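Please study the protein below:
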Amino acid sequence: MKALRILLLSLMAIILVACNNDDAAPDTTKGTTAGEAANETKQEETSEYPKTFTDGRGKEVTINEKPSRIVSTTLAMDEYLVALTNLDNIVAVTNMSTDATISNVAGLTDTVKTKFETVTSEQILALDPDLVIVPSYISPDILNQLDDAGLTTYQITDNSSFEGVIDSVKVIGEIIGEEQKANEIAADIEKRMETLKADAEGVESKKRVLYYTEYLSSVTDNTTIGEMIQLAGGVNVVSEAGIVGDDYPDFPNLSKEVLVELNPEVIFTTAWGAVEGEPAFVTEWKNDPALSDVAAIKNNQVYVLDGANVTTASHFIIEGAEEMKAILAGE
């Protein structure tokens, strides 16, 4: 169960629905949205409707006109849409979008009246949307009910890697008629990634890093967080040691004994929910005699990262990598 909980924490979007230029680089940091920008400057559309796409389930989906009543069913999609379109075009988001500890758009979706705790077909149908964007893990029953009712549904391909995020923002931008803005965001991510890669290549002695959670779970290089560690110029000690999980290979549980053996120089973690000061579980690690010789703990190199951009599945992942890099570089 602990591995499942960290899997959910790291891929935030799953939680809800189981239930270039140098002169004008776009700002994808918290507090800045393309929704606001769209109020000031109308984005140039680069293609005409109707448009036909093949979605994540292999179904051809035709969008007859630019969507103006869009339903989002995942936190990642909330973040994409707020960055790409006017808030007036979004009729529903997740309730998670309001939580600043996990959402990069907290405070920006306040004007969206419908906020899902759990997605149901009845709620969606009542909104009379012209586009519903859903993940691959949505209940087939819900999806079938929406399709049977004649709603336009588009199932995204779930891939929260950096490459997957870049592809996703471009596709979503094309679907909703905001290609220019989507391409700007994608180009910005790519540019920042190149900077991180160049800096990482220049690091002669890379620090050995462990991402560790209060549930004693970690990640391999085959995860978004693992990719962040590499871009930040660190070495993931889990993949270095060839460790994989039993139930979820890329999210292994690590006992305290294994933690001592790995002996990371730096430990990164994230805290669930609002926390004032140091999280209790971090204090426990520091006070545990069994962990006193772990280099990261002995040298006070345990860092609580911003969970909103480290565990996101949207374009804000670049900020997670940059935060790690700044810490590892002592910036």
Q: What stands out?
A: The CA atoms of residues 92 and 114 lie 5 Å apart.
